Amino acid sequence: MKATGIIVEYNPFHNGHLHHLQQTRIKTNNDIVIAVMSGNFLQRGEPALVDKWTRSKMAIASGVDLVIELPYAFATAQASDFAKGAIFLLDALKCSSFCFGSEEGSLEAFQQTYSLLSTKKDEYNTAIANYIKKGISYPKALNEAYNDISKASTDRLVDLSKPNNILGYHYVQAANLLNSNIKPETIQRVVANFHDDANNNETIASATGIRKLLFEGQKISEVNAFMPSPSLEGLKDWESIYFSFGSWEKFYPTLRIFILRSSKEKLAQIAEITEGMENAIWKAAKTHTNFESFMQQIKSKRFTWTRIQRMLTHIYTDFTWDQLRDIDLPTYIRPLSMNKKGQAYLQSIKKDLQLPLISRVAASKNDKQLQLDIKAADLYYLGLQSSFGQSMVGSDFRTAPIIQE
User: Fold this and answer.
1) 111, 186, 270, 376 — which has fewest CB within 10 A?
2) Is 17 known as a binding-site position?
3) Annotated binding residue at 288?
4) Is 9 annotated as belonging to a binding site?
5) Contact assessment for residue 20 and residue 35, using Cβ atoms and an 8 Å cutoff
6) Binding site annotation covers 101?
7) Which tens digits make up the pLDDT trace of 29-78?
């Protein structure tokens, strides 16, 4: 059996994801699709709408064969490290290819962009540093430097101001830097862009648009047109148990306690917190009782909303600079859900895996990365502020990989 990989968050799984999955099967013509999926906290620095187990079941019910968890340290990282962790795991799982959605839709453009930036690496890095000195955010500095470097090129290049193009570039970059034989493929994103609101005249909406509807108090039936039935049922089941969805507004009271019980010196040791942001965060937590007003006080031109949210995620999980610097690549493969085909594939490659395969965390709980995953899962359920959420603390020890027919 040949496998292709996809890198996902499925927050939640919607019709655009289904399109990507179906087109991936057509484009690669492989037997198995493996998804490396973020756990309970995501790359944009926010809690997942529903937990990793629920999202993995949505994925399997809609056609993915095997879902593997991307460890917390990579799932909540900047784009380059997020991509590195995910591609490393897909390579370790013997995937012959990986396929990502992009606004660009042309693999040649990604390859030529990687070639350009590799060739002009020193010039590119110097330009980035110069823009950062002007006080703009790191992502904006990257884009400005890229625009400068690319002006003289006649090749077809990727627009790196687009969110999926940025991730796609880093996937291609990671595969090259890891000297992987895994072959990249891309599929053009259709209808809804990454941050677009949901449009009732369409059947595809962004995950951002779907979440916005739910957070605004819309009933799950209002997102019916944008999601496959297994995803809708998953959301309904979740809401019937937990009564609400994961969000920073829901988690903020707990986050606020964690901030205010820390000293500013302790906050400065948390991963991604730099340039005195610990002072702004602590001061805002003293006065603001809701997340939106808290964020409005601490946002700045220097740091993107996403970067600040990642700081807050790391405060919430107590993930420090020392821990971050101690992590290079994923140290295990952890399945969350699979169907019979995915199970058979995993069995067929099990003896050749270079990483330990973790089905039950109790046997490998001393792994530092796994400890982070377990803690992040427990804190996620506590953040839901429900008795059912509290009962889920420790569930990583009790939950085996889900096998669906």
Assistant:
1) 111
2) yes
3) no
4) yes
5) no
6) yes
7) 999 999 999 999 999 999 999 999 999 999 999 999 999 999 999 999 99
